[in-house]
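Example record

One chain of 79 residues, shown exactly as stored in the release files.
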Amino acid sequence: GFAVQRAQGSYFLMANYESLAGDIGDVLCARQLIDTHQVAALPTSVFYAQAPKSLPWLRFAFCKSDPTLKQAADHLLRS
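Predicted structure tokens for this chain:
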């Protein structure tokens, strides 16, 4: 359900969570992913000295083993 920006030569994937979680803020959304799905993502606001007010993007690292990525995907698919 995330809108995903395809990576071009990196180990990271940017995903827009706005259609799933609204405007709850990227830090809260990242925390909720850990609490509800056991999947970690980095809020993109941490890359800014003064983050824009609305920044509905999370950064996922996919430099993991295939079994780990499959397990993360399975966790995210669970409601």
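Notes: The radius of gyration is 12 Å.
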